[in-house]
């Protein structure tokens, strides 16, 4: 036992002074004084004294004095701040692992973080007897949790609000920070600095100060979501599909419910069974929403090999962005078939312009449109656009044309091309068409013998699809295949496949544009608008845009490895000051009971 507040000689001196004071008070109280009593009262007291008692009246004051003496000595000991052990000299920097796996519960039922905090408190209690201590939090980005101090009470204030990151800890960087703290404090030059790493994994880092690893935790079984994503379905406007992969890091089979929610609405609820050390993939589609903020969660987990020891890998996040309309300019004299085909697509924002008006436009004027549909029209000289769908091109346009064909018979279609997307036009009748002059790099979509009636051209900075007939020259417009032809061709020339906004990895930055606010998953606003390193998984918001951060990439087995050991110097006793305080309370209660025994009777 050692005393942190005072040296041993000072504590002994205070104890001696307290003992002298207690004995002096006892002697003063026991000094006899003459007292006049009546004859009846005298014999009443004599009768009471003659009764057999466990404690004679003359012994009780002596016992009370001894109890008071013990209570005073206990108070002196508390003033001296007693600690177990002889203390650790010098400066110790403790590196506390705050990674995601520290939330795991081993087969022994103990959470790794709880064991780490227990060992941390005991080590700080011992270290601050004769030395100093600092604590470095080893999260995804290391930080100083407790500056160098010699007061053990500072630790509890520093641990207030301690939270784990949703990603792995950067232990090498945290140990390097601890080494730097010791060097700047001068402990390395004096040879009295050391580093203690409290973590659930083995780590080897070259340091100038002696380093000791205190392992915590035991092996744990877990079922994890290892992949979760959502994407738009190109074939169905406004719909999206989800894909969720689950893995079992267990010794036996695992069962669980997979629940996927869009906000407060459950869109999928299924049970899965996973063999040990394998994965299962769940795919579903047909969900319709303008935008979605999705949360996948594993619930009702049943393991044949025990309990699920880690809840941090049971949730994953994904978002589906709102559809952005494709802006299309239709240059036509009023073709009702083209207008109807474009109006049938809910994802198009269509403007109509007469062919005569196109002559007064420039490249900059047309840049706001994702695609142009030209019906018997052509762009003026010097004007360009990277996405064009042309019907019945004029003879003096940018597309070279050949002879005019009367009632050509379609003999071949390139149905595998994305501009046709499986459509076959073999039965389509064409009354009149213009043969197109195909370049060597063109792909012929529709052919009539040796003549090209439809081509797809890849330009250095764009794409063009051309059909050598108009809507008035074919019966294709009366078939449902015509809107599909227009939509597939526009999708290819505009090259605007819906991006799949995959969830970002926890640990990446999040920066808002000027004028936009950043909100965390709880809705709290980040005033700076910049999060250098996102350490929490969930749905974040930048203005009106949702951004998913997920930790599924970090899901793995939770084996023991270096985590199965115990610190040899650990103590199973509670803090010594707490034990002395409890004894002091018991002594005071006992003294009160002795001095007031008559009232108790």
From TrEMBL:
Keyword annotations from UniProtKB, A to Z: Membrane, Transmembrane, Transmembrane helix
Ranges annotated as spanning the membrane: 6-28, 54-79, 576-595
Family matches, as Pfam families: VWA_2
InterPro entries, A to Z: Class_I_gatase-like, VWF_A, vWFA_dom_sf
Domain named VWFA: residues: 92-200
Annotated protein name in UniProt: VWFA domain-containing protein
Classification of source organism: Bacteria, Pseudomonadati, Myxococcota, Polyangia, Polyangiales
